[in-house]
Amino acid sequence: MEEELERELGKRGLSYSNQADKGRCLFSTRDFSPGEVIISQEPYVSVPNRTSGDSRCDWCFSSSNLKRCSSCQVVWYCGSICQKSDWKLHQLECQALSRLDKNRLKSLTPSIRLMVKLFIRKKLQSEKIIPATYMDNYKLVEALVSHMSKVDEKQLLLYAQMANLVNVILQWPDISIKEIAENFAKLAANAHTICDSELRPLGTGLYPVISIINHSCLPNSVLVFEGKMAVVRAVQPVPRGSEVLISYIETAGSTITRQKTLKEQYYFTCTCPRCSNLGQSNDIKESSILEGYRCKDAKCNGFLLRDSDNKGFICQQCGLVREREELKIVLGEVKSTTEKASMIYSSGNRAEASALYKMIEKLQLNLCHPFSLDLMRTRETILKISMELQDWEEALAYCKLTIPVYERVYPEHHPLLGLQYYTCGKLEWLLGNTEDAIKSLTKAVKILRNTHGKNSPFTKELLSKLEEAQAEASYKLSSVGY
């Protein structure tokens, strides 16, 4: 099967190999240009997220015109086409879910369903009811790394409990609890969050071939989704012989934070160019700016480092000291106010929540560097609430406040940066700031046409908005001429 996969990848200008220090790697055997699709794959199995009041079609992940499966009362479909497309697999799942009592159904998380569907698909392919291909077969799942030897006992126990539940659901006499538990570990290390065009999470999918691709905090490619299909596009030139690399994690963070996340979730230490300066003076400075404290002199933009006595933090620019106890008090206020704001927001009181988050912002302005990630996240939340309240001017003001931080923490071709430019451009155009909108939308197009593809509906919509803004600007200019 490996030889067949290698041939299939070869047709796409790719090859893969096993390396002692990295495991499986995907390489290009031809040049790929920015925006070009390197590889795409439908999920071996997938499930939509399960959130209160936000059901989705199990086949296409649409949230419109949904009807619940009349038999199992668990799965939703947006129409007969999707239901029929999913029927071969759902037929067995439906029978299994229909046997569950209410207590068992409460334990039916997306992860449990994903595993149930995984074994059903394996069974159906082995019985040739569902076809298996070189890019779509259970042997690819078997080849995935589980890191079971590195998983702690608490997590192993959880996997065992989840495996037992899957066993209870399926009730197959020949199923292996050990294999189920190991597959949960594989899902943890290899499954991908399926997102919409604006990178909002919709569900989870397992893409065994895509999982061959390794991580870099400064990747040459990006993983996006078109429906459920995973699409990897080049965001930089990928010359022949280069390793194809994507990012596994949120890369807006200090080197030490990224390393910690990768170690905890994926059990490896990143050695990419962005991580190579770990512990060096410029890396320490950047970490302190992004995740540390600001100088207590509001006019000073210096960054702080812990003093030798561990009693406070010293500004590396002006030498002023911030006492540990003072910072502790402010941090306590931020934490308690954040908890209250989150509860108020969940209750639906957007205006009061916004006021509380602005209080948090004020505290953080005194506590954090202007490029602080915590401050950026707070402003993102205020931006979101302002949009929900349709306070477009405030939304634009907060969007603009986040842009400099995005530009600092994300590579120039990162889709999140492009999406923030897009949001800014839409708000500027809505408020009549046509020239500014053109600039923002142009920046968005430069990034998103490569990450999302020139011909995707999302990019076409973006280009249409840019063209409308340009036409409006031309009309205004010609009107002035008259």
From TrEMBL:
Keywords, ordered alphabetically: Metal-binding, Zinc, Zinc-finger
Protein name per its UniProtKB record: MYND-type domain-containing protein
GO CC terms in record: nucleus
Domain (MYND-type): residue spans on this chain: 57-94
Pfam families, A to Z: SET (PF00856), TPR_12 (PF13424), zf-MYND (PF01753)
A GO MF term: zinc ion binding
Stored InterPro entries: H3K4_H4K5_MeTrfase, SET_dom, SET_dom_sf, TPR-like_helical_dom_sf, Znf_MYND
Source organism (scientific name): Daucus carota subsp. sativus (Carrot)
PROSITE patterns, sorted: SET, ZF_MYND_1, ZF_MYND_2
SET domain residues: 12-249
